Amino acid sequence: MVQSAVLQRAPVHSQSIFRKPKSWLSSGEGSSYALPQQAAGAAILSTALSSGTTTTLATQTPAGNQASTTTPGTTGSVITSLETSGELSVQPFPISTHAGTTGTFSSTESLSLQTGGSGHKEVASKAAMTVPDIFQPIATGSPPSQVPSREDHPVPRLGIASQTYPISTNKFYANLFLGTQGQGTWTHPYSVAWCKGTGNAQSWGMCISHVDADQRAYGPQQMAIPGSPVQYFINPIGIQSIILSAAEFGSSTVLTTDTLRAFSANANLQPEIDSESKLTIPLVQGMGFVTGIYNNLCPAIQSSVFFRTVVSAGSPKAGVYKYRITLEDGKSWLLYAIPSNGSDPFLKLVSNTLLQGSSGWSGTIQVAKNPSGSHGETLYDSSAGVYAAAGQVKGSVQGKWGTYQFQWTKAGLTADPLLMFALPHHIQSFANDTLSGITSMQLQTTTKGMATAVIANCWTLVETDLPTDMCFAPWSPIVGSATTLSAAARQDITKAGSSEVNQDMNAQSNLDSMYFSGKALSKFAMIVYTLHDLANQPALAAQGLTSLKAAFSRFANNSQIYPLVYDSVWGGVVSVGSYLTGDSGQDFGNTYYNDHHFHYGYFVHAAAVIGYLDPSWIAPNRDWVNMLVRDVANPSTQDNYFPFSRNFDWYHGHSFAKGLFESGDSKDEESSSEDVMFAYGMKMWGQVVGDAAMEARGNLMLSILARSLRNYFLMQSDNVNQPANFIGNKVTGILFENKIDHTTYFGANLEYIQGIHMIPLTPASALTRPQQFVSEEWSTYFANGAADPAANVVGGWRGILFANLAIIDARTSYSFFSQSNFDPSWLDGGASQTWYLAYAAGLGGA
């Protein structure tokens, strides 16, 4: 039901178990709601002569171009239900932490680990580390022999041209080759979608949309939260402002893609299969224009919003023809036509939905929205005819300084300056030479604040305080790495650890889920590390390490319940679970490439701890662990077994979790903290195995994450990127490319929504969760008398909340975990009292 532009939705129940999720596209669950129509007067068309003068015409809709309605399509629709394909509605906890305890181990025998005995202490990488190229390949060979290959992935390649390098499954353009191929692709600030005969224009071209802030739809206010922030905000989809099409396109039109890379892909429209006539749209993140390359077609520039006026504006440079367009919503656009033969394209206004050129035309047409009047027009004019065809990232590290570059591949009139759009976190970290290219022109993005036009062929960005001293011990920017704890803390840790280290590691990790299994292994790795390095209990640690290595070997040998396979269709390592069960949601959609950074990050972290404590373990296990890192975060296109950086999006500064599932709001991320966990685990694995490039890359990713999360996910009161009526939620909940919803896939309890951005608590937590943010969030939700007091929260979420409290109040956190009547049920299956005590103590709690 739509009421005064505020959308109401069915409440999300707070239970941890829901009905089996279904695809939002086929289930009928949820609804698309039309936003309120804007008032529009009679459509008046102006056609332009090549001299630039205009002639006013009466409204006309010739046969074959009949508009389907007299109302301009200015409103679009929104999807208010969660798209749950591949998402299990269960809490992110493995089995009970205290299940399977085999008995208390107590010994005064001084056992020595293979690392050299109880005196072994971690040493952080030297701050003077210099790595000229952090994107060196980890490896280029095939996955380990124990991981078989399959060629029958449940999701076939749809319309993808043959390419020798793997196709990224989690990038912004995946909707182009999934499902109906009709959902949107967000390049920011623009989005595009294949029209498929929809809208007023009934076009089969590629529609272009840009949504301003005043077009958003907002969810209901959450009265239980101070300030009553809205639950969600959504940008309407389906507003077909400008459409790049051709007169030849119709119901036989086909959409294909080629040259799919980390930052770019080409979308191709052809009148029919194997037609030599083609429209190619290079899609690049941050592109300043939407560009269409026509080959032997009759250009049809369409609009379902309706053209109000179209004015030929002469030629801003040789061979470039310019048109000013005003749509019926009052928005201004520019169109530039660059014919291959240099001749005038003679675009003619045929109706209020159609601007048409000559048949058999070849050349380039670019469109851009102009929010800045004559100034914006001047900027666009200077860059008209040139466009980004692709991008790549380069990086280096020297000491605590990390530098990375976006190098844009130019096409078209390459001698001219390139205009691209930067997100807020880019602007904050631009080096001086790139800062000089910043302009005053901005366009709203859907979920990342204002995008700023930048004139530069290459962007250089700098992070100046990499966490090079962060290791396995508790860490914060203030304390540093806390490798020495008080005697009282060591005593409490030993008491807790002597019990927890003897839980049945095999039983807790031998599960049908890579996610839950990895969490258990990572938990026990931190218990063993804490006992050895922080509590000075080498005997307890030695026994725990033996059990941990045995539990881990099940996965390294690929003999778990659902083994891994190498999928040669898409190029990745996936669980065999969905192959065997037919359930795309098995293990949160792992087989379909959902959440790989969440799942595999825990294994990489556990492996780093084992290798640190026993270096002899590294050699026989290195290839298997590296395989997981390559699957999630392959740093090099020289590695042809995995796509470059499957999950971490170097443009957005964080990862996307959604894999091969069509989505009306595109890619999403639910747990920013588990994103951090992968980068941290990778950093530590690189440090332990001596891969300096991997360690440096992990440090840089952590710093970029810290910046992007505080801009977009973790919202302090002074956040300017998210809507003012939303930032009171403090965390985004689930951030999609097109909307943000303060909820989770497994329930709407406040501790769930806030806590999923806390777990797991690692040394990196204090880097990415600033003290000011943690303080504001605690006061809003979890302090006594707040919206959801931590003292009243049940189950493992209580432990998560009090561990997170250590970032700002380590003493209270430590007191909670060291109390004599501590209840183990306050620990989730991926957490331990041992580590929480050490974490709080290390940050000053004891």
TrEMBL record:
Gene Ontology MF terms: endo-1,3(4)-beta-glucanase activity; glucan endo-1,3-beta-D-glucosidase activity
From start to end residue, where is composition biased (Polar residues)? Answer: 98-115
Region feature (Disordered):
55-77, 93-118
**Residue ranges constituting the Glycosyl hydrolase family 81 C-terminal domain according to the UniProt record:** 485-837
| Pfam families for this protein | Glyco_hydro81C (PF17652), Glyco_hydro_81 (PF03639)
Query: Which domain of life does this protein belong to?
Result: Eukaryota
* Keywords per UniProt: Carbohydrate metabolism, Cell wall biogenesis/degradation, Glycosidase, Hydrolase, Polysaccharide degradation
Which PROSITE patterns does its entry note?
Answer: GH81
Annotated Glycosyl hydrolase family 81 N-terminal domain residues? 153-477
Question: Listed GO cellular component terms?
Answer: cell surface
Extract the InterPro entries matched here: Endo-beta-glucanase, GH81_C, GH81_N
EC number from the UniProt entry: 3.2.1.39
Q: Reaction(s) catalyzed by this protein?
A: Hydrolysis of (1->3)-beta-D-glucosidic linkages in (1->3)-beta-D-glucans
Q: Which GO terms describe its biological process?
A: cell wall organization; polysaccharide catabolic process
Q: What family does the entry list?
A: Belongs to the glycosyl hydrolase 81 family.
**Name of the protein described by the UniProt record:** glucan endo-1,3-beta-D-glucosidase
